[in-house]
Amino acid sequence: MPDGRGWYDLTRGQVLAFVDVRSWKIIAWSLQPERNYNSLVIRTLMNRVCAGWGLPGVWLFERGIWKSAKLVKGESPPGWEDGLSWPAAQVGWEQVGVRFIHATRARTKPVERVFGLIQDMMEGTRGYCGRDERRDCPEITKRAMDDVKARRVSHPGELFLSFDEWETELGQIIDRYNASSQDGEVLGGLSPNEAFEACWPTDNPPARFDASCWHLVAHYVKQVPVTANGICFSVGSRKFVYRNERTGQDRGQQVLAWFDPECPELVCVTDLNRRNPYLVERSRPVEFIAAPGDVNFEHQLSLVAAHNAYPKARFHTVKAKFAPNFRRNLVDVTTAELAQEITAQRQTIEAAQKQQTVQTTKARASYGRLGMPMPAATRLRPKQIESADALNRLLAEEETETSKA
To answer: N or C terminus: fewer CB in 10 A for the chain?
Structure first.
């Protein structure tokens, strides 16, 4: 990965894979360049699994963050200790009938076996560092790492895969694994693809939420107070703050925040009865020494946005080799109306953001040709861009006339 200083860093990255327990088929996976994954990545991949293959009956996870993270499992509502009825106490995945089981030993986790077979297929790949790098890393990889660190090569791509190359290579390896026949009691000579199709529950298919109810699984729902600082909550080490004039009207009230890990820049807010939804953009801190009008202000904000962009991970849902059937969704009016309102408001905000990005890009180019500082994006008007374009045309015409003379 580029280190921002003219050279490159070597990283081992993280791969997460979701496996169907019966067929051992990898049905979804993600790749990220960071050395540690977090609950945002886990929940996003869970959402992708549900979008592609429907709701599972059970999530079979390990422990640690997979068990403790509230974003992964949901959160108990206030009053849990006071003895709520079971329907009222159900949260998150439990509301849609999905249970959690957490493995205590490696041999009870099918994904460990699957990753072992995947690693067998990785041997010989450029940059392969063994099953346990501290003990069995190939000498050729150790020398290559030293050469990159000492800059004895013109480019590390001669010895290691880039992030894009590894994503492509990993996808091909997973496709080969899913298509390879396996002996043993579980598959009996079938490939994971064949076993997955053969075991698909045609008579009792899973439910796959559509646009009328997708938010029930796509969002992490949390009851929060609206304070003087807006709506604030943390996901792991990340803090999220949302505020605008609409949240100001709800100051002092308890609301439900519907947080989508795939779109953390927006949060949907409803009352405790899941009504009156509105979307709020994420608020980011700005250094007190910065001020609108500073020639470097807008550029620095764009750098902050680029640096904090999420997700950096790449997510993949493996396509079906057959046509799976799914259960029909029957939802109540309130749920369907909430889904429609969230979708409509998000599309409106995203369209406005796209228009502002186009306008800012065009203004930056026009003012750049003039050698003038661009006004702050919040104060930029279409007529200013038109004026800058007109001035650029006049200067170009004058330059042409001068050259002819």
So the answer is: C
